[in-house]
Amino acid sequence: MAGSQATRQALAGAFKELVRAQGFEKVSVSQVCQACRMGRKTFYYHFRDKYELAQWIFETEFIEAGGGDGADRWELILALCRYFYRERGFYADLLRYHGQNAFGQYFQAYLQGVLEPFILPEPGAVEAIARRDGVDPETARKAYAHFISDALLWSIFRWLSGGGKQPPEQFVRLLKSVTDLVSARVAGGEPAHPGPAD
User: Fold this and answer.
1) 28-41: per-residue pLDDT in tens?
2) What is the phi-psi region of residue 100: left when phi exceeds 0, alpha when psi lies from -120 to 50, beta otherwise?
3) What are the pLDDT digits (tens) for 35-77?
4) What 8-state DSSP symbol labels residue 98?
5) pTM of the model
6) Domains of the chain and any CATH numbers
7) Which of 5, 115, 113 shows the shortest CA–CA distance to 57?
């Protein structure tokens, strides 16, 4: 089992270097295998494709390493941004790719799953606004959670693709401030812009 883990780590290391050098789309399984001096059979024994390898890297380096264990949403987001900042040459390119099985889709589902318990406003706030607007409250709760996780995903992507010029701590403070503004609007029961008069 230790040898199997070492093989995966070797493939992951080669893959990360190749992505940094030439971009995710241009990296092939053959190139990863060549860089590790391994056969394609070895690669496919461990991973279905390079998309699964990318997910394994995130799961191993961040989730299994305890980065996603924060009891507070902002601790979790800060840990995530610190990790992405250290690896920005790799993840900025991964998040730029939007094709089938893209890492961004996987990451979006992860982000929504771990943040949903944290990102809903005070109990009753979404329901009150949904009822006022004639929307099913459960549908509204899910849509709100999806909206916030999408906003966080694209904010992180924009930050990374811009070279991560702000340190993670400064970037997360900005995210928190903006998210608090959105939450305050929802908690106050007011739409951001008045609708048309009836």
Assistant:
1) 999 999 999 999 99
2) beta
3) 999 999 999 999 999 999 999 999 999 988 877 666 677 888 8
4) -
5) 0.81
6) 1-63 (1.10.10.60), 66-190 (no CATH)
7) 5
Residue type (1 letter), 30 = S
**Measured distance CA(102)–CA(55) in Å, rounded:** 10
Give the pLDDT confidence of 156-179 residue by residue, as tens digits. Answer: 889 988 877 889 999 999 988 887
Residue 43 CB neighbours (<10 A): 22
Res 192 pLDDT > 70: no
Token pair in block for residue 7: 């093989």
Tokens, residue 28: 């092939």
* Single-letter amino acid, residue 189: G
46: tokens are 């461990």
Q: Which two tokens stand for residue 156?
A: 């992180």
